[in-house]
Write a structure and sequence with these properties.
By secondary structure, the chain is an all-alpha fold. Helix content is about 75%, strand content about 0%. It has helices at about 5-25, 35-40, 45-50, 55-60, 60-75, 85-105, 110-120, 120-145, 155-175, 185-195, 195-200.
Length: about 210
């Protein structure tokens, strides 16, 4: 059972995270300092560093939560599903509970606005892409375990994840620069691109 102290610590962390995201999206990542965040929550800089290693970790914290949610969803997929279908279904069905995961900490709208901040801030985009490589490796290992293959001798887990990761990155980029910046638009674009993987890889693209 969670103690009163643990609940208080969680509230402090959540407050720091929400405030950091609000400042990042309103005045820019580069123009926001740790002192700004701590002062807005009325805690010391030292308290901030008890919960986050730095601004970058706070800026990407919600994305880390959604990634953990996705990895759990992949692990939970039925073993009879082919690997790419398991990834696809983990994404599509994950939308049903994604709101709950995010809203427990911050408004979904704030989470969505942070995508634009990441895409327009070179240091954050570099960190995001670096983490994407680590995430893809984690997914590949999950698939390898599911299928009972050795990822060091069988390239299929990493090949499948490379394709999947490329589609998800394309989705992020297209959505974050589009006109409809809603969660529904992101979901629709994700579904559309995932459904095009098969035809794009196996069929002719020529119309004449």
């Amino acid at each position: 059972m969670e103690t009163l102290r643990e609940r208080k610590k969680q509230r402090t962390r959540d407050s720091l995270l929400r405030t950091a995201l609000e400042l990042f999206t309103s005045q820019g990542y580069e123009h926001t300092t740790v002192d700004d965040i701590a002062a807005a929550v009325e805690v010391s800089q030292r308290t901030f560093f008890r919960y986050f290693a730095g601004k970058e970790e706070a800026a990407l914290a919600l994305q880390d939560m959604t990634v953990a949610h996705f990895l759990d969803a992949v692990r939970a997929r039925p073993p009879h599903e082919p690997p790419m279908e398991a990834l696809r279904q983990a994404v599509l069905e994950g939308w049903d509970t994604l709101n709950d995961v995010i809203e427990a900490v911050a408004p979904v709208e704030l989470y969505l606005r942070m995508y634009q901040v990441v895409e327009s801030t070179p240091v954050l985009l570099a960190a995001h892409l670096r983490r994407s490589v680590e995430i893809e490796e984690a997914i590949a290992l999950i698939l390898a375990e599911r299928e009972g293959v050795d990822p060091d001798t069988d390239p299929r887990p990493r090949l499948a994840v490379a394709v999947f990761g490329g589609v998800m990155r394309l989705t992020e980029r297209q959505w974050s620069t589009g006109e409809d910046f809603s969660l529904d638009a992101m979901q629709a674009l994700t579904v559309s691109y995932l459904e095009q993987i098969g035809p794009a890889l196996s069929e002719s693209w020529r119309t004449h």
